[in-house]
Amino acid sequence: MPEMVDQIFVICKHWLLGFAPAGVQPIFSALLSVVPVLVVFPLLFAITTVLERKGLGRIQNRYGPNRVGPCGFFQPIADAIKSLAKEDVVPDTADRVAHFLAPLLLVAAAFLAYAVLPIGRNMVVANLNAGVLFFFAVGSMVELAVFMAGWASRSKYSLLGAMRAIAQMISYEVPLVLASVVVIMAAGSLSTVAIVNAQASYTGIWPHWFVFTPWGFAGFVLFMIAATAESNRSPFDLPEGESEIIAGYYIEYSGFKFALFFLGEYLGMFATSGMAITLFLGGWAAPFSFLTWIPSYVWFFAKLLTLIAGFIWIRGTLPRLRMDQLMNFAWKFMLPMTLLNIFTAGVWHFTPAGYARWLVCVALVVAPFLLLSRGLQQEKKYGMRSYRFAE
Amino acid sequence: MSSLTSYLLVSALLFSIGLAGALTRRNAILVLIGIELMLNAANLNFLAFWRYGPNPAALTGVMFAIFSISIAAAEAAVGLGIILAAHRHFKTTDVNQMNALKG
Amino acid sequence: MTVSFFILAALTIAGTVAAMSLRNLVHCILALTLGFAGLAALYLQLGAQFVGFTQILVYVGAVAILAMFAIMMTQRAGAVAQPASSSSRTRGWITGGMTAGAVFAVLAWAIHASAALPQTLPPQALPSQPDAGVRAIGNALMHGFVLPLEIMGLLLTAALIGAVLVAMQEKQEMP
After folding, report:
1. In this predicted structure, what is the pLDDT of residue C85?
2. Mean pLDDT throughout C63-92?
3. CA distance linking residue A390 with residue B12, whole number of Å
4. Which residues of C touch A190 (CB under 8 A)?
5. In a domain, C102, yes or no
6. Which chain C residues are closer than 8 Å to A189 by Cβ?
7. Would you call C51 an interface residue with chain A, using a CB distance cutoff of 8 Å?
8. How many domains in chain C?
9. Buried b (16+ CB within 10 A) or exposed e, C79-105
């Protein structure tokens, strides 16, 4: 019976596929795989906006939205109606074609990334041989969309925001990819399905997730930091820093296009979180062997919501970084850490299992962390703050 | 017309477009892009010959394409760096106006 | 020879032609990314999944963005190429176009007339799906192609350092 519930969507798909004539079956099958993704994740986006606003409200000692529906949970519907009904303003000097295409490209790239995420057992749109590579290739298309938006608006703030965003995304893409390399080394495959299968076994009740190894834990933390920067979220939200450049690259967008940017950004965040779950947190696998009767997709979304809660918490807690701090952090801390982490994974692979291996690998992770974070702290001699006034 | 021939024709067309761009455009960045296009045409040739060649298991074409892409990336980085340095010096990216060897 | 091949080829050619002929530099780069994406799709159709994704990652994600940065640093935003005197411009286009056309004619003739190319491939001679999996590529890189791989690493390091050195701000000369 648990298997039945676990596979219910797969069974449904095959049942529906039986009704299609033989000629259109491949297209129908693709459609049946894609449409749920197109429905579920925007829905998750709507739920997340409410949770985020309410959560941030609580952190900041206020209520958050509480007017529409029970406890304000119908707020996204009101927001959607508002953004649909708003006038779509295009600046006079804007490059109309690029201005129109940018939000579409952003959302399309964000949706494409879901093609390789295994949401449950046997539930993946495309089991590509080079799935992880596909994910990062699609992710790099987002930069292009951001640039188009910033440049086509012909506004100083947009261009500044786009330049900041691209510099940040390129810098943090390097640690993002390098942090996932350790998992690819351990699983011996670029296919997301194979990576999840490599983690889906248990010793006693404990799972074989990659996060429960020294290199896996360091990789997970580094991956999540880089993912926060990739999705332009606080504390890395310089590209859209409201107090500095208003809203960055989408300042000149209004109405539904603005909503599309919002959607694309959140979809990107969900996709990178989903990739973190796939790579480090065992994908759809249950955390304990006695909980495997709960369907696999429930576990995936539970993990996803946990990571989203973490994102919201971080956003409510940390202040925004400065541009030079951002770049220093990427190149002087993240990059050496990820490279050393790859070395650690190699050491782990080639030493026999036992306590000695744990000791060596933990030392290999902790020592560089201490050294690098100390190194960043040096040369910082804070003197009295001096004020300069305009003359 | 076989599949291989059509791929080769597309590649030849791509090469010619890149060549025309590199010869006629006057902005140094676009000249560099034209050269990149010619490299890409070569990549398409490698892959087409690998796919339709007698020995696809050898993967030689794929390897050549991968190395060629890495070389193109290095070339783009160095080339654009040189263009930036030249722009600082000549205050232009027009290749016709970069005509002095001595600064 | 399928419909998808023709669509992708047309997309690639259209993108690259636009990239080489548009006036606005940023439009050129945007059209170029379209061409690169079409080319990546052609690679996918040839069965080279790894190369296709690498193409998108390197060209759309890195080279195009790099070129955009170069344009932004050297041009005012939205500037078009400086209009030259129209006669020299047309002369340039005619010369360049004719050279490229001649090259294409020779290449097309060579492809068409070559005896080495099988004119019609028998279907059974075509490998349905050659094994270009990531594992096979990795094995090839680590066994047969180790030396090129190492040299490539050296080249990329040298290019990284070289590009930084070349593009770095020149030191102000002492008076």
Report:
1. 58
2. 71
3. 62
4. 134
5. no
6. 134-135
7. no
8. 2
9. eebeeeeeeeeeebeeebeeebeeebe
Band the pLDDT of C151: cuts 50, 70, 90. very high
pLDDT of residue A233: 81
Q: What is the largest CA-CA distance in chain C?
A: 76
In this structure, is residue C84 part of a structural domain?
Answer: no
Q: Where along chain B do its domains lie?
A: 3-97
**Interchain pair C49, A129: CB under 8 A:** yes
Residue in A93, A138, A151, A158 to test binding to C, most C beta-carbons within 10 Å:
A151
Task: State the residue range of the domain holding A276.
Answer: 87-373
Q: Report whether the peptide linkage leading into residue C122 is cis, meaning its omega lies within 30 degrees of zero.
A: no
Residue A88, pLDDT above cutoff 50: yes
Q: What is the least distance, in Å, from the CA of A130 to any CA of chain C?
A: 6
> How confident is residue B103, by pLDDT bands cut at 50, 70 and 90?
low
Q: pLDDT tens for residues C79-92?
A: 555 555 567 778 77
CB count within 10 Å of CB A40 equals 14
The domain tally of chain A equals 1
Q: Which of A271, A241, A261, A268 is nearest to A164 (CA)?
A: A241
Q: Which chain B residue shows the shortest CA-CA distance from C74?
A: B87
Range of the domain at C26: 1-79
Q: Are C68 and C1 in the same domain? A: yes
| Encoded tokens for A108 | 């399309």
Residue C117 lies in a domain: no
The reply to whether C86 falls in a domain is no
State which of C64, C79, C94 marks the end of a domain. C79
The amino acid at residue B18 is G
- CATH no. for B3-97: 1.10.287.3510
Asked, for residue A15, whether it belongs to a domain, the answer is no
In chain C, which residue's Cα lies nearest the Cα of B60? Answer: C140
Same domain (yes/no): C75, C147: no
User: Out of A130, A137, A143, whose CB is closest to C134?
Assistant: A130
